[in-house]
Automatic annotation (TrEMBL):
Active-site positions on this chain: D18, N66 (proton acceptor)
Keyword Nucleotide-binding: no
Subunit structure: Homodimer.
Top-level division of the source organism's lineage: Bacteria
Substrates-to-products reaction catalysed: 8 isopentenyl diphosphate + (2E,6E)-farnesyl diphosphate = di-trans,octa-cis-undecaprenyl diphosphate + 8 diphosphate
Cofactor(s) needed: Mg(2+)
Details of cofactor binding: Binds 2 magnesium ions per subunit.
GO CC terms: cytosol
Family according to the record: Belongs to the UPP synthase family.
Organism (species): Acinetobacter defluvii
Residues the entry annotates as binding Mg(2+): D18, E205
A Pfam cross-reference name: Prenyltransf
Descriptive protein name: Ditrans,polycis-undecaprenyl-diphosphate synthase ((2E,6E)-farnesyl-diphosphate specific)
Keywords, in A-Z order: Cell shape, Cell wall biogenesis/degradation, Magnesium, Metal-binding, Peptidoglycan synthesis, Transferase
Length: 250
């Protein structure tokens, strides 16, 4: 099997799965049907990432701001999240994928929190790929929460304030044990990050598409990978420096 290093694929892919409600309106479906259609799109995307050697896939399922949506929609999304987790556990075991969740769990139901923990524990041993679902998540919350944790360590005199740096912060924030996001995909036609993985995607390549999430396919995912492979990632350096480093590594 090829790996992300061999064929210049991203090691860590993040997806903002946007456009479910617009899909339902476009197809003249009932309210909520767009979310149901969108739920079914994830499986082939996960399988393809696993097949080609992507190490981590992180998807935005429910944001901190989504709590402000109409209650019927919030209830439906919570129900679909439970269904998704139940369906994904045997799939994760079949493909040997670790399933994780990030976000503020304090507003979630006890049943959903228990189900999330159960799924994490059952799949923790798998190392072929990590699938992370962001639920009740916001990038600003993530950064503030990490700052609180570090502040507590200083207060407890476990670390000195002078030890705080970007490396420590990056290790303690959500997904800190994974590689940073290389490619961030947003479906649905909007050109913004919407408070998703603000720290982890600091140097990510961005791919925006008009395609609504329920219509997103493996073929377009492959196209996004091709776009990624054609971009020069400089991380603050010049093109000449990158080219010289490439020559030296040959």
């Amino acid at each position: 099997m090829t790996t992300s290093e061999d064929n210049h694929l991203p090691r860590h892919v993040a997806i903002i799965m946007d456009g479910n409600n617009r899909f339902a309106k476009k197809k003249q479906l009932q309210k909520g049907d767009g979310h149901r259609e969108g739920k079914n799109v994830l499986d082939p995307i996960v399988e393809h990432c696993r097949k080609v050697g992507v190490q981590a896939l992180t998807v935005f399922a429910f944001s901190s701001e989504n709590w402000n949506r109409p209650q019927y929609e919030v209830d439906l999304l919570m129900k679909l999240l439970e269904e998704t987790i139940h369906e994904q556990i045997p799939r994760m075991e079949k493909f040997e994928i670790s399933l994780r969740f990030i976000g503020d769990r304090s507003r979630l139901s006890t049943e959903l929190k228990q189900l999330m923990l159960h799924a994490e524990q059952r799949t923790a041993k798998f190392t072929h790929m990590t699938l992370t679902i962001a639920i009740s998540y916001g990038g600003m919350w993530d950064i503030a929460h990490t700052a609180q944790q570090i502040a507590q360590l200083v207060k407890d005199e476990k670390i000195d304030v002078n030890q705080i740096n970007t490396e420590m912060f990056g290790q303690m924030i959500s997904l800190g044990d994974l590689t940073p996001v290389d490619l961030l995909i947003r479906t649905g036609g909007d050109f913004r990050l919407s408070n998703f993985l603000l720290w982890q995607a600091a140097y990510a390549e961005l791919y925006f598409t008009q395609t609504l999430w329920p219509e997103f396919t493996v073929k377009e995912l492959e196209y996004a990978f091709n776009v990624f492979s054609g971009r020069e990632r400089r991380f603050g350096k010049t093109s000449e420096q990158i080219q010289q480093e490439h020559i030296e590594n040959l």
